[in-house]
Write the C-alpha coordinates for this entry.
Amino acid sequence: MKEILLTTFNARYTHTSIAQRYLFANLEELQDRAKILEFVINSQVADAAEEILRYEPKIVGIGAYIWNALEVQELITILKKVAPQVLIILGGPEASHFPHRVDFSGADYIIQGEGDIAFYTLCKTLLEGHTPSGRVIKAPMVDLSAIKLPYDYYTDHDIKNRYCYVEASRGCPFTCEFCLSSADKKVRDIEIGRFIGELEKLWQRGVRNFKFIDRTFNLSIENATKLLDFFLSKTEEYFVHFEVIPDHFPAILREKIAQFPPAALQLEVGIQTLDPEISKNIHRRLNIPKIEDNLAFLQEQTHAHLHVDLIIGLPGESLEGFGRNLDKLYSLTQCEIQIGILKKLSGTTISRHDEIYGMVYSDKPPYDILQNDLIPFKEMQKMKRFARFWDMVYNSGNFKKSATLLWKEGKVYEGFYAFSEWLYNQTESTWQISLDRLAQLLFRYLCEEMEHSEEEIKALLIEDIMTVRGRKMPSFLRENYVPHEEQKEGYAKLNKRQLKHATV
Protein backbone atom coordinates (compact mmCIF):
# COMPACT_ATOMS: atom_id res chain seq x y z
CA MET A 1 0.00 0.00 0.00
CA LYS A 2 1.11 3.58 -0.70
CA GLU A 3 -0.30 6.71 0.88
CA ILE A 4 0.76 8.99 -2.02
CA LEU A 5 0.25 8.13 -5.69
CA LEU A 6 1.80 10.33 -8.38
CA THR A 7 0.21 9.88 -11.78
CA THR A 8 -0.48 11.34 -15.20
CA PHE A 9 -1.45 10.29 -18.72
CA ASN A 10 1.48 10.53 -21.12
CA ALA A 11 0.84 11.30 -24.78
CA ARG A 12 2.57 8.10 -25.95
CA TYR A 13 3.95 4.92 -24.44
CA THR A 14 7.51 5.98 -25.35
CA HIS A 15 7.17 9.17 -23.28
CA THR A 16 7.93 9.54 -19.59
CA SER A 17 6.89 12.18 -17.06
CA ILE A 18 9.86 14.12 -15.71
CA ALA A 19 7.48 16.24 -13.62
CA GLN A 20 6.21 13.28 -11.59
CA ARG A 21 9.79 12.19 -10.97
CA TYR A 22 10.72 15.68 -9.75
CA LEU A 23 7.85 15.53 -7.27
CA PHE A 24 8.86 12.06 -6.12
CA ALA A 25 12.55 13.01 -5.79
CA ASN A 26 11.66 15.89 -3.44
CA LEU A 27 9.25 14.09 -1.12
CA GLU A 28 11.96 13.80 1.55
CA GLU A 29 10.85 11.46 4.36
CA LEU A 30 7.56 10.78 2.59
CA GLN A 31 9.21 9.12 -0.38
CA ASP A 32 8.92 5.58 1.03
CA ARG A 33 5.18 6.18 1.31
CA ALA A 34 4.80 7.18 -2.36
CA LYS A 35 4.72 5.60 -5.81
CA ILE A 36 4.69 6.79 -9.44
CA LEU A 37 2.08 5.30 -11.79
CA GLU A 38 2.04 6.44 -15.42
CA PHE A 39 -0.62 5.80 -18.04
CA VAL A 40 -1.11 6.66 -21.71
CA ILE A 41 -3.95 8.82 -23.07
CA ASN A 42 -5.44 5.87 -24.94
CA SER A 43 -5.68 3.92 -21.67
CA GLN A 44 -9.12 3.20 -20.29
CA VAL A 45 -9.52 5.82 -17.57
CA ALA A 46 -11.59 3.49 -15.38
CA ASP A 47 -8.78 0.94 -15.57
CA ALA A 48 -6.31 3.62 -14.49
CA ALA A 49 -8.55 4.51 -11.54
CA GLU A 50 -8.73 0.84 -10.57
CA GLU A 51 -4.93 0.52 -10.66
CA ILE A 52 -4.51 3.67 -8.55
CA LEU A 53 -7.00 2.53 -5.92
CA ARG A 54 -5.34 -0.87 -5.66
CA TYR A 55 -2.66 0.87 -3.58
CA GLU A 56 -5.28 2.39 -1.23
CA PRO A 57 -3.76 5.89 -1.39
CA LYS A 58 -4.72 8.80 0.83
CA ILE A 59 -3.43 11.34 -1.69
CA VAL A 60 -3.35 11.21 -5.50
CA GLY A 61 -1.25 13.83 -7.30
CA ILE A 62 -2.19 14.27 -10.98
CA GLY A 63 -0.36 16.18 -13.71
CA ALA A 64 -2.70 17.95 -16.16
CA TYR A 65 -1.53 18.95 -19.63
CA ILE A 66 -3.17 20.06 -22.85
CA TRP A 67 -2.99 16.52 -24.27
CA ASN A 68 -4.54 14.78 -21.24
CA ALA A 69 -6.90 17.34 -19.71
CA LEU A 70 -10.07 15.43 -20.61
CA GLU A 71 -8.64 12.15 -19.31
CA VAL A 72 -7.64 13.88 -16.08
CA GLN A 73 -11.14 15.32 -15.72
CA GLU A 74 -12.65 11.85 -16.11
CA LEU A 75 -10.15 10.32 -13.68
CA ILE A 76 -10.98 12.92 -11.02
CA THR A 77 -14.70 12.29 -11.51
CA ILE A 78 -14.35 8.51 -11.13
CA LEU A 79 -12.06 8.73 -8.10
CA LYS A 80 -14.39 11.12 -6.32
CA LYS A 81 -17.42 8.94 -7.00
CA VAL A 82 -15.95 5.61 -5.89
CA ALA A 83 -13.38 6.78 -3.32
CA PRO A 84 -14.43 10.23 -2.06
CA GLN A 85 -12.06 9.98 0.90
CA VAL A 86 -9.03 10.16 -1.41
CA LEU A 87 -7.56 13.67 -1.58
CA ILE A 88 -6.73 14.79 -5.11
CA ILE A 89 -3.94 17.30 -5.73
CA LEU A 90 -3.86 18.70 -9.25
CA GLY A 91 -0.87 20.37 -10.91
CA GLY A 92 0.68 20.98 -14.30
CA PRO A 93 0.19 23.65 -17.00
CA GLU A 94 -3.54 23.03 -17.46
CA ALA A 95 -4.16 23.56 -13.77
CA SER A 96 -1.83 26.52 -13.33
CA HIS A 97 -3.91 29.21 -14.99
CA PHE A 98 -7.47 30.38 -14.49
CA PRO A 99 -10.04 30.15 -15.86
CA HIS A 100 -9.97 26.39 -16.25
CA ARG A 101 -11.62 25.40 -19.50
CA VAL A 102 -11.92 21.79 -18.35
CA ASP A 103 -13.91 21.01 -15.22
CA PHE A 104 -11.38 20.32 -12.49
CA SER A 105 -13.78 21.23 -9.68
CA GLY A 106 -13.50 17.72 -8.21
CA ALA A 107 -9.85 18.28 -7.27
CA ASP A 108 -9.39 18.97 -3.56
CA TYR A 109 -6.25 21.09 -4.05
CA ILE A 110 -4.57 22.79 -7.00
CA ILE A 111 -0.89 23.69 -7.12
CA GLN A 112 -0.17 26.44 -9.62
CA GLY A 113 3.43 26.93 -10.68
CA GLU A 114 6.47 24.80 -9.88
CA GLY A 115 5.36 22.07 -7.50
CA ASP A 116 8.72 20.47 -6.69
CA ILE A 117 8.62 21.67 -3.06
CA ALA A 118 4.98 22.77 -2.77
CA PHE A 119 3.70 19.24 -3.36
CA TYR A 120 5.84 17.84 -0.55
CA THR A 121 4.74 20.61 1.82
CA LEU A 122 1.07 20.06 1.02
CA CYS A 123 1.30 16.26 1.40
CA LYS A 124 3.08 16.64 4.74
CA THR A 125 0.40 19.03 5.97
CA LEU A 126 -2.43 16.71 4.94
CA LEU A 127 -0.86 13.53 6.32
CA GLU A 128 -0.28 15.26 9.64
CA GLY A 129 -4.01 15.91 9.83
CA HIS A 130 -3.92 19.65 9.20
CA THR A 131 -6.08 21.62 6.79
CA PRO A 132 -4.38 24.03 4.39
CA SER A 133 -5.54 27.63 4.40
CA GLY A 134 -6.86 27.48 0.83
CA ARG A 135 -7.67 25.15 -2.06
CA VAL A 136 -5.28 26.85 -4.49
CA ILE A 137 -1.56 26.94 -3.68
CA LYS A 138 0.46 29.39 -5.77
CA ALA A 139 3.93 27.92 -5.80
CA PRO A 140 6.90 30.22 -6.46
CA MET A 141 9.79 29.41 -8.77
CA VAL A 142 12.12 27.04 -7.00
CA ASP A 143 15.83 27.40 -6.39
CA LEU A 144 17.21 24.79 -8.78
CA SER A 145 20.35 24.39 -6.68
CA ALA A 146 18.25 23.41 -3.66
CA ILE A 147 16.07 20.67 -5.15
CA LYS A 148 16.86 17.03 -5.81
CA LEU A 149 17.08 15.98 -9.45
CA PRO A 150 14.78 13.22 -10.73
CA TYR A 151 16.97 11.02 -12.88
CA ASP A 152 17.52 8.16 -10.43
CA TYR A 153 13.82 7.42 -10.74
CA TYR A 154 13.81 6.38 -14.35
CA THR A 155 13.42 2.61 -14.13
CA ASP A 156 15.36 0.02 -16.09
CA HIS A 157 12.17 -0.53 -18.09
CA ASP A 158 12.02 3.20 -18.91
CA ILE A 159 15.63 3.19 -20.02
CA LYS A 160 15.11 0.20 -22.30
CA ASN A 161 11.82 1.25 -23.88
CA ARG A 162 11.27 5.01 -23.53
CA TYR A 163 12.82 8.41 -24.00
CA CYS A 164 14.42 9.89 -20.92
CA TYR A 165 13.48 13.55 -20.55
CA VAL A 166 16.10 15.83 -19.06
CA GLU A 167 16.50 19.57 -18.48
CA ALA A 168 19.55 21.75 -18.03
CA SER A 169 17.51 24.93 -17.47
CA ARG A 170 14.03 26.28 -16.89
CA GLY A 171 12.31 29.36 -18.27
CA CYS A 172 12.39 31.38 -21.47
CA PRO A 173 13.48 35.01 -21.98
CA PHE A 174 11.11 35.64 -24.89
CA THR A 175 7.54 36.93 -24.94
CA CYS A 176 5.84 35.00 -27.77
CA GLU A 177 2.12 35.49 -27.19
CA PHE A 178 1.06 31.99 -28.24
CA CYS A 179 3.50 30.18 -25.93
CA LEU A 180 3.01 29.34 -22.27
CA SER A 181 6.75 29.49 -21.66
CA SER A 182 6.56 33.27 -22.12
CA ALA A 183 4.93 33.48 -18.69
CA ASP A 184 8.24 32.41 -17.12
CA LYS A 185 10.70 35.00 -18.43
CA LYS A 186 13.52 34.22 -16.03
CA VAL A 187 15.93 31.57 -17.30
CA ARG A 188 17.56 29.51 -14.55
CA ASP A 189 20.36 27.03 -15.18
CA ILE A 190 21.07 23.88 -13.24
CA GLU A 191 24.76 23.96 -12.30
CA ILE A 192 26.33 22.40 -15.39
CA GLY A 193 28.82 20.15 -13.61
CA ARG A 194 26.08 18.71 -11.43
CA PHE A 195 23.84 18.14 -14.44
CA ILE A 196 26.51 16.47 -16.56
CA GLY A 197 27.19 14.18 -13.63
CA GLU A 198 23.55 13.10 -13.78
CA LEU A 199 23.80 12.55 -17.54
CA GLU A 200 26.83 10.34 -17.02
CA LYS A 201 24.95 8.24 -14.47
CA LEU A 202 22.09 7.82 -16.95
CA TRP A 203 24.55 6.87 -19.66
CA GLN A 204 26.17 4.25 -17.45
CA ARG A 205 22.72 2.80 -16.79
CA GLY A 206 22.20 2.38 -20.53
CA VAL A 207 20.22 5.46 -21.54
CA ARG A 208 20.74 6.20 -25.24
CA ASN A 209 17.66 8.30 -26.01
CA PHE A 210 17.76 11.78 -24.44
CA LYS A 211 15.15 14.50 -24.97
CA PHE A 212 16.02 17.90 -23.52
CA ILE A 213 12.96 19.93 -22.59
CA ASP A 214 14.84 23.24 -22.26
CA ARG A 215 13.08 25.93 -24.29
CA THR A 216 16.33 27.70 -25.18
CA PHE A 217 19.13 25.14 -25.23
CA ASN A 218 21.57 27.43 -27.05
CA LEU A 219 20.88 30.55 -24.98
CA SER A 220 23.99 29.87 -22.88
CA ILE A 221 26.66 28.95 -25.41
CA GLU A 222 29.08 27.95 -22.63
CA ASN A 223 26.67 25.38 -21.21
CA ALA A 224 25.50 24.24 -24.66
CA THR A 225 29.05 23.48 -25.80
CA LYS A 226 29.78 21.51 -22.62
CA LEU A 227 26.67 19.40 -23.19
CA LEU A 228 27.53 18.82 -26.84
CA ASP A 229 31.05 17.80 -25.78
CA PHE A 230 29.54 15.26 -23.39
CA PHE A 231 27.73 13.51 -26.21
CA LEU A 232 30.57 13.88 -28.70
CA SER A 233 32.80 12.00 -26.27
CA LYS A 234 30.55 8.93 -26.56
CA THR A 235 31.29 6.29 -29.18
CA GLU A 236 28.14 4.18 -28.92
CA GLU A 237 24.99 4.99 -30.88
CA TYR A 238 22.61 7.49 -29.25
CA PHE A 239 19.83 9.97 -30.01
CA VAL A 240 19.64 13.42 -28.42
CA HIS A 241 17.03 16.13 -28.97
CA PHE A 242 17.43 19.86 -28.27
CA GLU A 243 15.05 22.82 -28.75
CA VAL A 244 17.09 25.74 -30.07
CA ILE A 245 16.82 29.45 -30.77
CA PRO A 246 16.92 29.76 -34.58
CA ASP A 247 19.08 32.90 -34.82
CA HIS A 248 21.79 32.08 -32.26
CA PHE A 249 24.46 29.79 -33.70
CA PRO A 250 27.92 31.29 -33.15
CA ALA A 251 31.00 29.64 -34.67
CA ILE A 252 31.84 27.46 -31.65
CA LEU A 253 28.33 25.98 -31.65
CA ARG A 254 28.46 25.35 -35.38
CA GLU A 255 31.78 23.58 -34.99
CA LYS A 256 30.37 21.21 -32.38
CA ILE A 257 27.11 20.44 -34.21
CA ALA A 258 28.98 19.64 -37.42
CA GLN A 259 30.80 16.80 -35.63
CA PHE A 260 27.71 14.74 -34.82
CA PRO A 261 27.14 11.57 -36.87
CA PRO A 262 23.94 10.98 -38.90
CA ALA A 263 20.74 10.23 -36.98
CA ALA A 264 22.30 11.14 -33.61
CA LEU A 265 21.26 14.78 -33.18
CA GLN A 266 17.81 16.35 -33.59
CA LEU A 267 17.29 20.10 -33.36
CA GLU A 268 13.80 21.50 -32.89
CA VAL A 269 13.91 24.97 -34.40
CA GLY A 270 10.98 27.24 -33.61
CA ILE A 271 10.10 29.46 -36.59
CA GLN A 272 6.27 29.86 -36.55
CA THR A 273 6.32 32.51 -39.28
CA LEU A 274 8.83 34.13 -41.63
CA ASP A 275 6.79 37.31 -41.97
CA PRO A 276 8.43 40.11 -39.92
CA GLU A 277 5.17 42.01 -39.46
CA ILE A 278 3.28 38.96 -38.24
CA SER A 279 6.09 38.00 -35.86
CA LYS A 280 6.26 41.54 -34.49
CA ASN A 281 2.50 41.51 -33.91
CA ILE A 282 2.76 38.44 -31.63
CA HIS A 283 6.01 39.57 -29.94
CA ARG A 284 7.98 36.78 -31.62
CA ARG A 285 11.52 38.07 -32.01
CA LEU A 286 13.01 36.92 -35.33
CA ASN A 287 16.19 37.82 -37.15
CA ILE A 288 15.20 36.48 -40.56
CA PRO A 289 18.62 36.85 -42.31
CA LYS A 290 20.34 35.00 -39.44
CA ILE A 291 17.68 32.29 -39.45
CA GLU A 292 18.12 31.75 -43.17
CA ASP A 293 21.90 31.57 -42.79
CA ASN A 294 21.73 29.17 -39.84
CA LEU A 295 19.25 26.86 -41.54
CA ALA A 296 21.41 26.78 -44.65
CA PHE A 297 24.41 25.84 -42.51
CA LEU A 298 22.53 23.12 -40.62
CA GLN A 299 21.08 21.72 -43.84
CA GLU A 300 24.25 21.76 -45.91
CA GLN A 301 27.11 21.27 -43.44
CA THR A 302 25.77 19.03 -40.67
CA HIS A 303 24.05 15.68 -40.22
CA ALA A 304 21.62 17.14 -37.67
CA HIS A 305 18.01 16.18 -38.20
CA LEU A 306 16.01 19.41 -38.24
CA HIS A 307 12.47 19.75 -36.98
CA VAL A 308 11.25 23.25 -37.86
CA ASP A 309 7.74 24.55 -37.49
CA LEU A 310 5.14 26.91 -38.91
CA ILE A 311 1.78 27.87 -37.40
CA ILE A 312 -1.51 28.28 -39.26
CA GLY A 313 -3.95 30.90 -37.95
CA LEU A 314 -1.66 33.57 -36.50
CA PRO A 315 -3.43 36.94 -36.24
CA GLY A 316 -3.05 38.91 -39.45
CA GLU A 317 -1.57 36.07 -41.52
CA SER A 318 -3.56 34.84 -44.53
CA LEU A 319 -3.34 31.43 -46.15
CA GLU A 320 -1.39 33.05 -48.97
CA GLY A 321 1.07 34.35 -46.40
CA PHE A 322 1.35 30.94 -44.80
CA GLY A 323 1.95 29.44 -48.24
CA ARG A 324 4.82 31.83 -48.92
CA ASN A 325 6.32 30.87 -45.55
CA LEU A 326 6.13 27.17 -46.37
CA ASP A 327 7.66 27.65 -49.81
CA LYS A 328 10.47 29.72 -48.34
CA LEU A 329 11.14 27.35 -45.45
CA TYR A 330 11.26 24.34 -47.76
CA SER A 331 13.82 26.13 -49.90
CA LEU A 332 16.01 26.44 -46.80
CA THR A 333 15.68 22.93 -45.37
CA GLN A 334 14.27 19.62 -46.59
CA CYS A 335 13.94 18.03 -43.15
CA GLU A 336 10.74 17.92 -41.12
CA ILE A 337 8.52 21.00 -41.24
CA GLN A 338 5.91 20.65 -38.54
CA ILE A 339 2.71 22.46 -39.45
CA GLY A 340 0.81 23.37 -36.32
CA ILE A 341 -2.63 24.88 -35.77
CA LEU A 342 -2.68 27.94 -33.51
CA LYS A 343 -3.92 27.14 -30.00
CA LYS A 344 -5.21 29.46 -27.33
CA LEU A 345 -3.46 28.24 -24.19
CA SER A 346 -4.51 29.45 -20.77
CA GLY A 347 -1.95 31.84 -19.35
CA THR A 348 -0.87 33.24 -22.73
CA THR A 349 -1.61 36.70 -24.12
CA ILE A 350 -2.71 35.65 -27.62
CA SER A 351 -6.30 36.39 -26.55
CA ARG A 352 -5.67 40.14 -26.88
CA HIS A 353 -6.10 39.67 -30.65
CA ASP A 354 -9.50 37.96 -30.41
CA GLU A 355 -11.71 40.94 -31.17
CA ILE A 356 -9.46 42.73 -33.66
CA TYR A 357 -8.83 39.65 -35.82
CA GLY A 358 -12.04 37.72 -35.20
CA MET A 359 -10.19 34.85 -33.53
CA VAL A 360 -12.52 31.97 -32.63
CA TYR A 361 -11.21 28.91 -30.80
CA SER A 362 -12.53 25.52 -29.73
CA ASP A 363 -13.50 25.33 -26.06
CA LYS A 364 -12.09 21.81 -25.82
CA PRO A 365 -8.43 20.80 -25.63
CA PRO A 366 -6.20 21.40 -27.48
CA TYR A 367 -8.12 24.68 -28.04
CA ASP A 368 -7.42 24.89 -31.77
CA ILE A 369 -8.39 27.99 -33.68
CA LEU A 370 -11.61 27.47 -35.65
CA GLN A 371 -11.55 30.60 -37.77
CA ASN A 372 -10.39 34.21 -37.94
CA ASP A 373 -11.05 37.23 -40.11
CA LEU A 374 -8.78 35.97 -42.90
CA ILE A 375 -9.36 32.21 -42.73
CA PRO A 376 -13.01 31.06 -42.53
CA PHE A 377 -13.96 27.85 -40.75
CA LYS A 378 -14.24 25.84 -43.98
CA GLU A 379 -10.70 26.74 -45.02
CA MET A 380 -9.33 26.19 -41.53
CA GLN A 381 -10.74 22.65 -41.65
CA LYS A 382 -8.96 22.10 -44.95
CA MET A 383 -5.71 23.33 -43.43
CA LYS A 384 -6.05 20.95 -40.49
CA ARG A 385 -6.28 18.13 -43.01
CA PHE A 386 -3.37 19.65 -44.92
CA ALA A 387 -1.25 19.56 -41.76
CA ARG A 388 -2.21 15.96 -40.99
CA PHE A 389 -1.51 14.72 -44.51
CA TRP A 390 1.75 16.67 -44.64
CA ASP A 391 2.91 14.82 -41.55
CA MET A 392 1.85 11.45 -42.96
CA VAL A 393 3.36 11.90 -46.40
CA TYR A 394 6.27 14.30 -46.06
CA ASN A 395 7.39 14.52 -42.44
CA SER A 396 7.18 10.78 -41.88
CA GLY A 397 10.09 10.23 -44.26
CA ASN A 398 8.20 7.30 -45.77
CA PHE A 399 8.03 9.07 -49.14
CA LYS A 400 11.13 11.23 -48.97
CA LYS A 401 11.77 11.34 -52.74
CA SER A 402 8.38 10.66 -54.26
CA ALA A 403 6.63 13.31 -52.16
CA THR A 404 8.71 16.07 -53.76
CA LEU A 405 6.97 15.38 -57.08
CA LEU A 406 3.73 16.75 -55.60
CA TRP A 407 4.82 20.31 -56.34
CA LYS A 408 6.52 22.12 -59.20
CA GLU A 409 8.94 25.03 -59.38
CA GLY A 410 9.14 25.48 -55.62
CA LYS A 411 5.37 25.95 -55.22
CA VAL A 412 5.18 23.57 -52.25
CA TYR A 413 2.03 24.96 -50.67
CA GLU A 414 0.06 25.10 -53.91
CA GLY A 415 1.06 21.58 -54.95
CA PHE A 416 0.46 19.90 -51.62
CA TYR A 417 -2.84 21.73 -51.08
CA ALA A 418 -4.17 20.21 -54.31
CA PHE A 419 -2.97 16.76 -53.24
CA SER A 420 -4.48 17.18 -49.78
CA GLU A 421 -7.88 18.02 -51.24
CA TRP A 422 -7.71 15.04 -53.62
CA LEU A 423 -6.56 12.67 -50.87
CA TYR A 424 -9.39 13.63 -48.55
CA ASN A 425 -11.93 13.15 -51.34
CA GLN A 426 -10.59 9.61 -51.79
CA THR A 427 -10.45 8.66 -48.11
CA GLU A 428 -12.85 10.99 -46.26
CA SER A 429 -10.50 10.48 -43.35
CA THR A 430 -7.21 11.72 -41.95
CA TRP A 431 -6.64 8.73 -39.68
CA GLN A 432 -6.04 5.00 -39.91
CA ILE A 433 -4.69 5.13 -43.45
CA SER A 434 -2.17 2.30 -43.75
CA LEU A 435 1.23 2.73 -45.36
CA ASP A 436 0.17 0.39 -48.16
CA ARG A 437 -2.97 2.36 -48.95
CA LEU A 438 -1.18 5.69 -48.70
CA ALA A 439 1.48 4.45 -51.14
CA GLN A 440 -1.23 3.32 -53.57
CA LEU A 441 -3.01 6.67 -53.36
CA LEU A 442 0.21 8.62 -53.85
CA PHE A 443 0.99 6.41 -56.85
CA ARG A 444 -2.43 7.09 -58.37
CA TYR A 445 -2.19 10.84 -57.87
CA LEU A 446 1.30 11.18 -59.28
CA CYS A 447 0.46 9.06 -62.32
CA GLU A 448 -3.15 10.04 -63.03
CA GLU A 449 -3.27 13.66 -61.90
CA MET A 450 0.34 14.75 -62.50
CA GLU A 451 1.01 12.43 -65.44
CA HIS A 452 4.26 10.85 -64.27
CA SER A 453 5.18 7.48 -65.69
CA GLU A 454 4.14 4.44 -63.69
CA GLU A 455 7.60 2.89 -63.88
CA GLU A 456 9.24 6.07 -62.59
CA ILE A 457 6.87 6.36 -59.62
CA LYS A 458 7.04 2.67 -58.74
CA ALA A 459 10.83 2.86 -58.66
CA LEU A 460 10.76 5.92 -56.38
CA LEU A 461 8.17 4.40 -54.05
CA ILE A 462 10.20 1.21 -53.70
CA GLU A 463 13.31 3.23 -52.90
CA ASP A 464 11.41 5.29 -50.33
CA ILE A 465 9.56 2.50 -48.59
CA MET A 466 12.49 0.14 -48.35
CA THR A 467 14.72 2.72 -46.68
CA VAL A 468 13.97 0.84 -43.49
CA ARG A 469 15.27 -2.73 -43.66
CA GLY A 470 12.75 -5.47 -43.12
CA ARG A 471 9.66 -3.62 -44.30
CA LYS A 472 6.96 -5.50 -46.16
CA MET A 473 6.64 -4.31 -49.72
CA PRO A 474 3.12 -3.18 -50.76
CA SER A 475 1.56 -5.82 -53.02
CA PHE A 476 1.18 -3.52 -56.04
CA LEU A 477 4.94 -2.89 -56.05
CA ARG A 478 6.23 -6.42 -55.48
CA GLU A 479 6.72 -7.33 -59.13
CA ASN A 480 8.98 -4.31 -59.53
CA TYR A 481 11.04 -4.91 -56.39
CA VAL A 482 14.53 -6.36 -56.60
CA PRO A 483 16.25 -6.65 -53.17
CA HIS A 484 19.72 -5.13 -52.99
CA GLU A 485 22.42 -4.70 -50.43
CA GLU A 486 22.49 -0.93 -50.16
CA GLN A 487 19.67 -0.41 -47.73
CA LYS A 488 20.62 1.68 -44.74
CA GLU A 489 21.99 -0.13 -41.75
CA GLY A 490 23.11 1.08 -38.38
CA TYR A 491 21.33 3.29 -35.88
CA ALA A 492 18.85 0.47 -35.40
CA LYS A 493 18.20 1.42 -31.80
CA LEU A 494 17.45 5.00 -32.66
CA ASN A 495 14.43 6.89 -33.87
CA LYS A 496 13.32 5.43 -37.20
CA ARG A 497 11.78 8.71 -38.33
CA GLN A 498 15.15 10.41 -38.09
CA LEU A 499 16.83 7.53 -39.86
CA LYS A 500 14.50 7.87 -42.84
CA HIS A 501 15.53 11.50 -43.20
CA ALA A 502 19.23 10.90 -42.57
CA THR A 503 21.80 10.93 -45.30
CA VAL A 504 24.04 8.03 -44.35
